[in-house]
Design a protein that fits this description.
single chain; alpha/beta; Metallo-beta-lactamase, Chain A; seven-stranded mixed β-sheet; 26% helix
């Protein structure tokens, strides 16, 4: 695990931080792909989990959710409009083209089984000492987790900080092929940029400690 801020750790589940999960307090944020459970548990070590929350129900974020919730006996928390996907496990159905070969591959080889949702996350809810921010677009129920006192933002896939082809850091919008509404996601980028986050933690790519960079990116799009 990589220490990011007070009670915040990044848990990369693939090389080069291509896919990340996070630990905030005793809550695990996201769960990688369906083969990530062992990696996450190994990196957690003796850290005790009390809950598991998703930024959104896509194959590379809910993959090990059911496994971890069952093994650890912890509740599963998801944004309202992603509840159906999280519970059914059919996590590509709301993508623009669920019949696309890449979407089919992700559903078959990356997504995990569905799991009952114990708590619906909505704007203003608290998870540990982070507030839930609704940021739809990449998925209908996408949420971020924001801690104002030190400017830490768990941004999920509203933005990414990696080029999926080169695996080098590169601040970008999420791929349109996986994004329910590109225009709505642009509005969510503007929303999180307005918070002036000092530490931005991405689902894909390394952490950025530069509020001005996020604001400049938001202006460009």
């Amino acid at each position: 695990m990589i220490h990011i801020a007070n009670d915040v750790f990044q848990i990369p589940v693939t090389p080069r931080q291509l896919v990340n999960t996070y630990l905030i307090g005793s809550t695990l944020i996201d769960a990688g792909i369906k083969f990530s459970g062992r990696t996450i548990l190994r990196q957690l070590g003796n850290h005790r989990l009390t809950a598991h929350a998703l930024t959104h129900a896509h194959p590379d974020h809910q993959g090990a959710s059911a496994e971890l919730c069952k093994k650890l006996g912890i509740p599963f928390w998801v944004g309202a409009k992603d509840q159906s996907a999280a519970e059914s496990g059919l996590v590509v159905n709301n993508m623009p083209n669920p019949k696309h070969p890449v979407a089919i591959f992700e559903q078959n080889f990356m997504a995990g089984p569905g799991h009952p949702v114990d708590r619906i996350l909505q704007e203003g809810d608290m998870v540990e000492d982070f507030v839930v921010i609704e940021t739809p677009g990449h998925s209908a129920g996408h949420v971020c987790f924001w801690r104002e006192r030190d400017g830490v933002l768990i941004a999920g896939d509203v933005l990414r900080n990696i080029n999926f082809f080169t695996t080098m850091p590169e601040l970008s919008e999420p791929p349109a092929i996986f994004t329910t509404s590109v225009e709505t996601n642009k509005k969510s980028i503007q929303k999180i940029a307005a918070l002036k986050p000092q530490v931005i933690c991405f689902g894909h790519g390394p952490v950025i400690r530069d509020a001005e960079r996020i604001q400049a990116f938001a202006k460009r799009i």
